[in-house]
């Protein structure tokens, strides 16, 4: 269209069609075609990447809506702080320093209340101590003459920054005051190095501390009032959820091993269930950090101010100790060499009973932790688990006979046994080794479950779990299970 | 003395000594005594606490002097930044914004070069993108009238802060851009919410980006030039050190088990050595963070820019997989039930050979990783390890006879065996179970060592380890060992 118009308007314009133009145009159209294909592909890739990213983000949000809420909370806190810039009286009061309020909100706002308090308290204390110290040194420096002043200030910054940075490598300090030390160095350097006079500094420090306090206050109010996430409660739930996973996993592993041929269809879901112990293996880092933050939290819900959070770490360690053994059991179950079917059959029922017994113990203490009530039936369940261990040992004791007794030779056995002899057609020990190992590890796992029970027992004492009403406990067992499950939904 | 003088000077003055004063004075002196004791105790406690803290800090510094050096480096960087305040021309240039340079140094300076680069790049990119975006929105808002302006600004802060905060929950983004997102939110909020006009903003942004660049440059220069600590090299050393620990631990465990009675004196040191695998169990977090930071580092020493850091994580996972099994082995070795001595003796030599074989394999790949040279003898060593597994299996196959042959019955055996019978005086299977389990786990450990070898093989391919000179390799084995050990000291 444009070319036609131009041709009509201007005589000078001519379309020149040199020879070979058809070929060139073909080339050109090929080129255009390629470029178009490339562009479409590019757009498609970008769209698919964005879509998959969006799906991923959507899944994360759907799995834990609190993460979305956290985003909204940060938005609210920042919007509240930005009000300081638009409301006149506030502006006049803290105006120029409102920068610090915004910065405080951005840096201090954390997912959990404990995280918020940890950073808020660290920031407040570090700012005030470092500020005071710096003003003091500034005052000394200002009295000692213009030439000495920068030397005093620079060397004090050098020494304090070096010492404070090194102190971050001390584990206890790192765990509790890491953020505070950063802020300490920052505040001290800024104040000591600034060119202000001491009286100006005092006024500035006052305003700055005030704005930081406002920032921290806004953070805490929004963090605590809008759907709070407590680090302590998270830790509490993580530990009890991990116990359930261990229990399921143990049942699943033993079932996988002994019922392998029976259910091929359900195997995938069963195997997934049996791999839950892996979560326990990898949860040390989150347990540590949550216990660390939980210390900063005031009492909330069922947890007092001095709730023994460090004991949860011991329970976690006992569970991991259990999970290590289950990992070895898993390896042994998936071993290439499998014991003969009749040997497995001999031990199947006792092994299943033991795994079920251990799993019941784990589930019981899990629900006891969840509800923060002493368990009524734990003694009975541990007793049952130990009985199952003994039964398994009895079954093992009767194995040497089985070991040497092939089904065909069974008829012979009676006569031979009278002569105090067994037939020498022994099954290779290599064949039964994985079975022995599995059984032995199963017994070891149940022993380590005992360790978890002990750790939870100490937790129950330290955290003053609600004691059992012995009258009720003896009257019936079923209602207790229902009761102990109920509060878990409330948590 | 004072009372005498006063008595001489003033007649009015009289010392009144009421009845019971002796008792009161005694009480008072008791009180003073108590207070003094308490004060002394307090001082002692404080002194002892400070001393123990100092000792702890001293030990940390002595164990790893780089931590002390890091403190000094931070001091140097901060002192360099503070020069901006005392050097006139520089002051005039970036003066009021030097705050940002100090802040950048304090916040960006990390222990490793990777950490420094991660934070520096994140800070620079986030500041510039957020600044540009905020200036754009500010401009739009300023055009839309005084009433709409705060609404546009506040809602943009709310939306962007919420979205950015939520994006931190996406694992990939969290791992690479966590710090950048904080700075993005901070910069955007500060700029969008500030009361400046757009042209003022542009000048401010320019100065601020300039000061941040100066801060980052000082950080990087000090971090790289003064005894740099590379996250990649740390990861590299951690992984190869962990392999050595696994190797020692495996040897130690098996020695502990089979030589328990032989050396009671050396047991403590031996047990300590055998517990090295626990370090491997707990090193996931540091491996992850170091691999994460190593990605930001340019090529250094023997490591190229695209060094396959993520493969180290796979090697680490394979080692942990090994360590889980060793943890179960440890439990089994410390079991209360111990196999009869003559049974243990039967398997001792083959088990020791297997543990030594596996340990040699681990040490060989460790030195191969350290020196970044393909190993010459790994095939031979793995072959030896597998031979040892087979030997152990042969020894196990000959066990059923041993199982039923008490030393006393040994003489009888020959006659009985002719009749194809074994005596029915069987040793309880329960007694030998821990031995079987230990042996079985030992075999499993050696299999998992194979997994570590494979992971290191992949690493060797990806990281282009120096290939073997086959001529040299075939000529002798001893010099190769020496050679492969040498570079480990250089690393």
UniProtKB/TrEMBL annotation, chains A, B:
Keyword Amino-acid biosynthesis assigned: no
Keywords per UniProt: Ion channel, Ion transport, Membrane, Transmembrane, Transmembrane helix, Transport
InterPro entries, sorted: ALMT (IPR020966)
Similarity section: Belongs to the aromatic acid exporter (TC 2.A.85) family.
Residues passing through the membrane, by range: 68-86, 98-118, 148-167, 179-198, 204-226
Any one of the GO CC terms: plant-type vacuole membrane
UniProt topology in membrane: Multi-pass membrane protein
A single BP term in Gene Ontology: monoatomic ion transmembrane transport
Superkingdom of source: Eukaryota
Compartment(s) where it occurs, according to its Swiss-Prot or TrEMBL record: Membrane
Protein name in UniProt: Aluminum-activated malate transporter 10
Pfam families the record matches: ALMT
């Amino acid at each position: 269209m444009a070319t036609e118009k131009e041709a009509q308007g201007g005589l000078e314009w001519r379309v020149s069609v040199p020879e070979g133009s058809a070929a060139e145009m073909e080339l050109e159209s090929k080129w255009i075609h390629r470029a178009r294909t490339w562009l479409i592909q590019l757009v498609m890739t970008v769209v698919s990447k964005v879509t998959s990213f969006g799906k991923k983000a959507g899944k994360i949000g759907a799995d834990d809506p609190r993460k979305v809420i956290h985003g909204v909370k940060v938005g609210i806190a920042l919007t509240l702080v930005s009000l300081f810039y638009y409301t006149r009286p506030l502006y006049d009061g803290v105006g120029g320093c409102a920068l610090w309020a915004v910065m405080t909100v951005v840096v201090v706002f954390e997912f959990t209340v404990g995280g918020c308090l940890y950073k808020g308290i660290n920031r407040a204390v570090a700012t005030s101590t470092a500020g005071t110290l710096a003003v003091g040194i500034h005052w000394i420096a200002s009295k000692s003459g213009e030439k000495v002043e920068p030397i005093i200030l620079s060397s004090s910054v050098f020494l304090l920054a070096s010492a404070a940075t090194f102190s971050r490598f001390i584990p206890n300090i790192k765990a509790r005051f890491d953020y505070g030390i950063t802020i300490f160095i920052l505040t001290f350097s800024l104040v000591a190095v600034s060119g202000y006079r001491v009286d100006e500094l005092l006024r500035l420090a006052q305003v700055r501390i005030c704005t930081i306090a406002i920032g921290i206050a806004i953070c805490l109010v929004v963090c605590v009032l809008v759907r709070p996430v407590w680090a302590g409660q998270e830790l509490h739930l993580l530990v009890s959820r991990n116990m359930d996973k261990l229990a399921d996993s143990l049942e699943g592993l033993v079932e996988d091993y002994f019922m392998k041929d029976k259910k091929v269809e359900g195997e995938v879901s069963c195997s997934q269930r049996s791999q839950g112990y892996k979560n326990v293996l990898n949860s040390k880092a989150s347990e540590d950090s949550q216990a660390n933050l939980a210390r900063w939290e005031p009492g909330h819900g069922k947890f007092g101010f001095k709730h023994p959070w460090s004991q949860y770490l011991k329970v976690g360690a006992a569970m991991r100790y259990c999970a290590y053994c289950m990992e070895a059991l898993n390896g042994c179950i998936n071993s290439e060499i499998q014991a003969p079917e009749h040997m497995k059959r001999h031990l199947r029922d006792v092994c299943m009973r033991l795994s079920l017994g251990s799993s019941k113990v784990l589930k019981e203490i899990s629900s006891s932790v969840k509800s923060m009530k002493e368990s009524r039936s734990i003694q009975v369940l541990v007793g049952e688990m130990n009985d199952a261990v003994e039964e398994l040992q009895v079954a093992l004791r009767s194995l040497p006979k089985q070991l040497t007794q092939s089904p065909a030779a069974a008829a012979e056995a009676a006569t031979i046994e009278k002569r105090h002899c067994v037939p020498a057609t022994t099954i290779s020990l290599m064949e039964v080794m994985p079975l022995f190992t599995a059984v032995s590890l199963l017994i070891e796992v149940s022993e380590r479950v005992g360790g978890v029970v002990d750790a939870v027992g100490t937790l129950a004492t330290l955290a003053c779990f609600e004691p059992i009403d012995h009258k009720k406990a003896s009257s019936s067992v079923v209602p207790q299970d229902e009761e102990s499950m109920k509060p878990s939904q409330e948590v």
